[in-house]
Specification:
The protein has a five-stranded antiparallel β-sheet with strand order 2-31-30-29-28, with no helix packed on it. A four-stranded antiparallel β-sheet has the order 5-4-3-35, with no helix packed on it. A four-stranded antiparallel β-sheet has the order 6-7-8-9, with no helix packed on it. The chain is mainly beta. The chain has a domain of 92 residues: Sandwich (Immunoglobulin-like). The chain contains five helices and 42 strands. The radius of gyration is 27 Å and the shape is globular.
Length: 597
């Protein structure tokens, strides 16, 4: 439902930049360009419930589970139980009605499931299986025997594993980081080697980061059925490609696990921080210690690694949400990054994985000096990047996701603020925007200033109406999550604001009210350049008309009005931000004010 063009455009601006006066953000659908979005429904989990919504924010369906949900190709909903992506040991597959069709519980005490999982089709078994990330416990003696620096304490150490179970719940394959390690401090150990010559293994003694609990903190994985490969992402700024097909032996779980622990299971490709295998520069403070460089590090705090699926623009490339923590930028911001791992230094697609340092880097400078960024090395394998022009508008220190859509758009979830938006590739403009209204304190129509993840959502997906999970089901829209009627803006609203600014600011004048903020009453002054039908109204943050102060024909000249903080019924309004809008014929002006009673 559209509001006044002027009000809508103004609110969009205020909400997008988080007004320093209010820190208030309207929740649910905030903007929609229905001519440019990829049609379908958006799925996300929050506070233990999964929601399927349409573009206007109407709830289509819910499920009684909500951690990191996604639809499967079998038309089911798959999610972890418990609501916490960081700690999960049970997963369920539900039908449309919420009935449990399959579940798996990791009961082994030395395995600690967390963050991500997937239902895959194992071509060697001819059946679907389930893979998940789990921290696997290490003893201090295991660490020391492998060549960890003996000056550190390794009690409670863990390294991530990828576990695969069949539909009967039997482990049929496992891959563990601890089986693919290298170190250069103890030549008596079998793991000894030259780090720079061993990119297929992880250095046990990375500077400043000794092996410890949740050492890798892997948070996402994906499976490529065509290649029979798995990719897994570490929050420390790297992702790794692992050979599943050539380390899996049908009907021999023990043999599969043993084979995956050999060099056949070493990384086939890694991307993000070549300093971790001595083939690049690490981040560092510059001579002017008020500045720093990311070195050759490309990712920081990254999440949601994936292959872009066949048939989609960029198919076969990697897509990852780079939160950009630990990238040592003076003004941090998050990025969506697309990587073609087959590109060499001349930009040729080789058809096989190319070590990123061999592909080289471009020196990229900031597109605008107000971003206050140093020049940085950007991998030549990065073929597309999205970041907001205003670096404070889009930043998430945790979680988050990105999904390439069939029309070339990219759907983004920034977890910190429960902020979803769809980006068009041609001009990187936002074509749909939504803020999760479910918070730690219940549903909110307005989100005020809060600590990160107050209304957080770990990941978001878009599905077309012909997806197997939706076909044959009732997709009739219900109410919005808050029950409020949809109130969002369209491209016409933004265009109207731009035209209004050019035509009316020269002729008419609307002054800032005084006092502002105010408690008892405030004066509003305006002038019109020529006689016209004049309308001056006040709206609240929800876009609701509060008070009409003027609605008549006025001659040219100055005017002064007084508003005592009441609505058209004479009742005092609530404290908060309001907008007063002057319309003289087709000319419009507006300003905001704050009422504190």
């Amino acid at each position: 439902m559209k509001k006044s063009l002027l009000l809508s455009g103004l609110l969009l601006f205020v909400f997008s930049v988080f007004s320093q006066e209010s820190f208030m953000v309207k929740t649910e659908t905030r903007y929609w360009d229905n001519s440019r979005t990829y049609p379908g429904y958006t799925l996300f989990g929050t506070r233990g419930t999964t929601y399927l919504i349409d573009f206007e924010g109407h709830v289509i369906h819910t499920w009684p589970i909500g951690t990191n949900p996604r639809f499967t190709e079998a038309g089911t909903l798959l999610d972890a139980v418990g609501g916490n992506p960081s700690n999960q040991n049970q997963w369920k597959e539900l039908d449309w009605s919420g009935n449990t069709l399959w579940q798996y519980t990791e009961s082994r005490t030395n395995y600690h499931g967390h963050h991500d999982f997937a239902k895959i089709y194992n071509t060697k078994l001819g059946d679907s299986t389930f893979i998940f990330i789990a921290n696997k416990d290490l003893t201090a003696q295991q660490c020391l025997s492998a060549g960890c620096d003996p000056s550190h304490n390794y009690n409670g150490a863990q390294m991530d594993a990828i576990v695969e179970v069949n539909r009967a719940g039997t482990v049929v394959w496992e891959w563990w980081f601890f089986d693919h390690v290298v170190q250069d401090i103890d030549p008596t150990k079998s793991t000894y080697g030259v780090i720079a010559n061993t990119p297929g293994k992880i250095d046990l003694n990375i500077r400043g980061n000794p092996v410890k609990s949740d050492w890798m903190h892997c948070n996402s994985l994906d499976y490529n059925q065509d290649l029979d490969l798995i990719v897994i992402n570490s929050v420390h700024g790297e992702f790794y490609v692992i050979d599943h097909g050539n380390t899996f032996i049908s009907d021999d779980p023990a043999g599969s696990i043993a084979l995956a622990s050999t060099t056949a299971g070493d990384f086939k490709y890694r991307f993000g921080d070549p300093a971790k295998y001595d083939q690049g520069d690490p981040p560092s403070v510059l001579d002017n210690w008020e500045k720093a460089t990311a070195g050759n590090k490309q990712l920081g705090g990254s999440h949601d690694i994936q292959w872009i699926k066949p048939g989609l623009p960029g198919a076969g490339n990697f897509l990852v949400f780079c939160n950009a923590q630990n990238l040592f930028e003076l003004t941090p911001q998050s990025y969506i990054i697309e990587i073609n791992p087959y590109l060499n230094s001349s930009g040729t697609i080789t058809g096989s994985f190319v070590n990123p340092p061999d592909a080289g880097y471009n020196i990229v400078s900031s597109p605008d000096p107000n971003l206050m960024k140093e020049n940085k090395n950007v991998s030549k394998q990065i073929v597309w990047t999205y970041s907001s022009k205003n670096n404070t508008s889009f930043y998430s220190t945790i979680g988050s996701s990105a999904q390439r859509l069939p029309n070339g758009n990219t759907l983004v979830c920034a977890m910190n603020d429960g902020h979803f938006f769809e980006v068009a590739p041609s001009d990187t403009s936002i074509v749909w925007e939504y803020t999760n209204p479910m918070t730690r304190d219940g549903l909110k129509k307005i989100k005020v200033d809060n600590y990160p993840t107050y209304n957080g959502v770990f990941r978001v997906y878009r599905y077309a109406a012909d997806h197997p999970a939706l076909v044959g089901h009732d997709l009739t829209p219900g109410s919005t999550m808050t029950g409020a009627p949809p109130a969002f803006w369209t491209p016409d609203d933004i265009t109207a604001i731009e035209e209004q600014t050019q035509s009316s600011s020269v002729n008419d004048d609307l002054k800032q009210n005084y006092p502002n903020p105010f408690s008892y009453g405030t004066t509003i002054e305006f002038s019109i350049a020529e006689s016209a039908s004049v309308n001056l109204v006040i709206y609240d943050l929800n876009g609701t008309l509060v008070r009409t102060l003027v609605n008549k024909y006025c001659t040219a000249g100055p005017y002064s009005l007084y508003w005592e903080g009441t609505n058209d019924n004479g009742n005092r309004v609530a404290s908060g931000m309001y907008f007063y809008i002057l319309k003289a014929d087709n000319r419009k002006l507006s300003k905001k004010m704050i009422y504190n009673k």
